[in-house]
Design a protein that fits this description.
With 393 residues, this protein is α/β, with parallel strands linked by helices. It has three domains: 90 residues, Fumarate Reductase Iron-sulfur Protein, Chain B, domain 2; 153 residues, no CATH class; 109 residues, no CATH class. It contains 21 helices and eight strands. The strands form two sheets. A four-stranded parallel β-sheet has the order 2-1-3-4, sandwiched between helices. A four-stranded parallel β-sheet has the order 6-5-7-8. Helix 14 links the parallel strand 3 and strand 4. The longest helix has 14 residues. The N and C termini lie far apart (59 Å). It binds iron/sulfur cluster (2 copies). The site of one iron/sulfur cluster has 15 residues, from helix 2 and helix 4.
């Protein structure tokens, strides 16, 4: 028996309480496409009662990895861990093949900052406002200045003396959506936090975990080395999935927190808005914030501090279809899930309505609702930190 087979599948009592929260079960009504069904397939195979079967591979590949089933499970079945190990086993034996962009990204990530270099033309493209890919929202990232040097410059200029924290910049966020990191730094420094951004940090490993690829432990070790000696109160993340992956790497020795939950404790400065600002926020909650980091959501005090009226989006606690890398690996299925969730935007309040979330990969998925024509009306997609951003400091 392979080591991966010695997992506690038997925890599952088959109660079915996870079925109503599972997006793939809701879409298909197929028991095999549910958490309970997948666990059954994997355990039967591990016990040797079911041969390795293409249908098991198919149903495994359908899973978003959203972890909603973990939160719903009264027996505390560690579904996410079981799923990651199964996917890794299937990828190593050729039963699951990550798509080419994921294999290329993995090869670059294992070599440290190469992804950053490889994606620099993409930052230029975004700055020029040219359409590039349905998943890429508009924005104006810095071309060459990185978050570490921007943080050092802001610290030098403002000399905050509050809590000392570090920022996880995230491989994709720093390479492609760097303006979110810059906004995060401005918000933290405006709220008197001392922020350090170690250049030695690397990808948190979530992308490799989601796609079953090798190299996660090497990245984790590099991050342990990068964050170990900083003497910070917490390492903060502005990406729910990356924060969850870093929690698994650094805790309990070093606390890892979502930036928004950290700000909620500080009581963030409130933005003032013009009386004729017609925007309304519709807040969507990232799965890895709810079910990975187990945050109850985004604190109302933080959303109030944006200075804009807000409400939770319909089905806010359900996966948008991003699923870490699901929208790259299974684009048609991800689109169907998003279409169902995004339909409300056609009629949503606001001029324009703003879809606000707390994870860059969820932002990319929501932006695709616009670029792929799933929603015909104009709407904006923003990270909550962009809505708290004081602008140039
Ligand atoms: S992780 Fe999400 S998609 Fe996968 S089985 Fe659980 S609830 Fe369903
Ligand atoms: S809720 Fe937990 S115990 Fe119940 S069927 Fe789902 S995985 Fe099994």
């Amino acid at each position: 028996m392979k080591p991966e087979s010695k997992l506690p599948f038997s925890n599952c009592t088959h109660c079915g309480l996870c079925l109503p929260v599972c997006p793939t079960y809701q879409q298909s009504g197929d028991e095999n496409n549910s958490p309970r069904g997948r666990l059954r397939l994997w355990s039967e195979e591990a016990a040797g009662r079911l041969p390795a079967d293409p249908w098991t591979d198919f149903y495994s590949a359908q899973c978003l990895g959203c972890l909603a089933c973990e939160s719903a499970c009264p027996a505390h079945v560690p579904y996410g861990q079981l799923f990651e190990r199964t996917r890794h086993e299937q990828a190593s034996t050729g039963r699951f093949r990550p798509r080419l962009p994921l294999r290329l990204a993995a090869a670059l990530l294992r070599r440290g900052r190469l992804l950053d270099l490889a994606l620099s033309p993409l930052r230029l493209w975004r700055r020029l406002g040219l359409p590039l890919h349905p998943l890429l929202p508009p924005g104006r990232p810095a071309l060459w200045q990185d978050s570490a040097s921007y943080a050092a410059a802001l610290m030098q200029r403002h000399r905050p003396n509050g809590p000392r924290v570090a920022l996880l910049t995230g491989c994709l966020t720093e390479a492609a959506l760097r303006e979110i990191n810059f906004a995060t730094l401005r918000v933290l420094i405006e709220n008197n936090c001392q922020v350090v951004v170690p250049r030695q940090q690397v990808c948190c490993g979530a992308m490799l975990e989601h796609s079953g690829q090798d190299g996660v432990e090497a990245l984790r070790q590099r991050n342990r080395d990068a964050f170990a000696s900083l003497e910070v109160e917490a390492v903060l993340s502005n990406a729910a999935g990356c924060g969850f992956a870093l929690q698994k790497t650094l805790q309990p020795e070093i606390a890892v927190r979502d930036v928004l939950s950290f700000l909620a404790e500080l009581g963030p400065k409130r933005r003032q808005r013009a009386a004729n600002d017609g925007r309304r926020l519709h807040v969507d909650l990232p799965c890895h914030l709810l079910h990975g980091q187990r945050q109850g959501g985004i604190a109302p005090s933080v959303l109030d501090a944006t200075g804009l009226p807000w409400a939770l989006a319909p089905m806010a606690a359900e996966c948008c279809g991003s699923g870490g890398v699901y929208n790259v690996q299974q684009p048609a299925e991800a689109r169907a899930i998003l279409q169902r969730k995004a339909a409300f935007l056609e009629q949503a309040a606001g001029d324009p309505p703003v879809l606000a979330t707390a994870n860059p990969v969820c932002m990319m998925q929501w932006h695709s609702a616009r670029s792929l024509g799933l929603v015909n009306r104009h709407f904006e997609v923003r990270h909550v930190l962009e809505l708290l951003d004081p602008g140039p400091l």
